[in-house]
Amino acid sequence: MKLLEDYIKHLELNQVLSFNSLRLYKTDIKDFTEFIVANYGLNFDLLSLNEKQLNKFMNTIYSLGKSTATINRKLTAIHGFWFWLKEQGLVDRDPFTQIKRDSQFRNKTAKTLTEDDIVLLLDCDGLDLKSKIILELIYATGIRVSEIVKLTLEDIDLNNNILTIVRSQKYKERTIPFNDLLAQYLKFYVKENSLAQEDAIFKNRNNEPVSEREIFRLIREAAFRAGITKKVSPSIIRNSFLKHMKENGAHETLLRDLTGQKTVNV
After folding, report:
1. What is the pLDDT of residues 120-174, one digit of tens each?
2. 145, 236 Cβ separation under 8 angstroms
3. 157: left (phi over 0), alpha (psi -120 to 50) or beta
4. Is 51 exposed, middle or buried (0-12, 13-18, 19+ CB in 10 A)?
5. How far apart are CA 258 and CA 173, in angstroms?
6. 2-98: in CATH 1.10.150.130
7. What DSSP state is assigned to residue 194?
8. How far separated are the first and last CA of the chain, in Å rounded?
9. Residue 109: pLDDT band with limits 50, 70, 90
10. Which of 49, 136, 195, 224 lies at 20 to 30 Å from 152 by C-alpha?
11. CB–CB of 212/19 below 8 Å?
């Protein structure tokens, strides 16, 4: 299954997924590989994959007691592999258009925090400046954790309060305005850490770019300090930003431009 192995290496090298998403994709691709080998043998030609085999894979996962959400996620992971094959010029058809997915979980309402929760989180005592900026940054701009770790000073216009998220393989480039409070935090932080234009904004104790795992840890610690007992993660803060923007009159077109997504379900 060399093509599947090459695809995983592509995901790792190009960092197109967050840490948690990459972990799940690896699991889903592994499950699909085991299914193919068990049912069609090691020499199966993946380029000949068709809807009958995909449906059989779906039924196999379902028979194991997995949820519709899990089945859809695994199909999304395999579909990503197929898109990659098309980019390589190895296939020109799409068997995924011939299968029907259960839509039960596809429009599930995203988890969010209330505005009161956000105030508690952003204003809690005992946080260092880096943690405060990361929290403010996610809630003020909707930036993804995978984008935070790549952020450099060059991406931030502190004179005009504009953040530029550079184009990735999955999302187009976008510019996002942010508030004066975040600008003040950033200006102080940049000066205090003597950052150059090409420097990563957030670094760890070893002076290396901060990891996604550390950002998750910082946010969990902030939620604990704020006394918030419900689950808090970067994506939940991001969803809260979008939901509150929408509730305050922001048009969905604006929200799509801010996120780079085709749809915004909050």
Report:
1. 999 888 889 999 999 999 999 989 998 999 999 999 999 999 999 876 656 677 8
2. no
3. beta
4. middle
5. 10
6. yes
7. T
8. 38
9. low
10. 224
11. yes
Q: Distance between CA 47 and CA 76 in Å, rounded?
A: 17
Tokens of 204: 């760890």
For 64-84, what is each residue's pLDDT tens digit? 887 777 888 888 889 889 988
Task: Enter the tokens of residue 205.
Answer: 């104790």
| DSSP character string of 63-114 | HTT--HHHHHHHHHHHHHHHHHHHHTTS----GGGGS----TTTTPPPP---
Bridge partner list, 175:
164
The Cα 112–Cα 114 span in angstroms is 7
Residue 158, amino acid: L
CA distance 247 to 112: 13
Q: What are the CA-CA distances from residue 37 to residues 1, 42, 85, 236, 262 (Å)?
A: 9, 5, 19, 38, 35
Higher-confidence residue: 218 or 101? 218
The pTM of this model reads 0.59
Q: How far apart are CA 208 and CA 200, in angstroms?
A: 8
pLDDT of residue 266: 64
β-pair partners for 165: 174
Of all residues in the chain, the percent with pLDDT exceeding 90 is 42
Domain range 115-259, its CATH number among 2.30.33.40, 3.40.50.300, 3.40.30.10, 1.10.443.10:
1.10.443.10
Q: Give percent of the chain above pLDDT 70.
A: 90
Question: In what helix (H) or strand (E) does residue 193 lie, and over which residues does it extend?
Answer: helix 180-193
Q: Enumerate the domain spans of the chain.
A: 2-98, 115-259
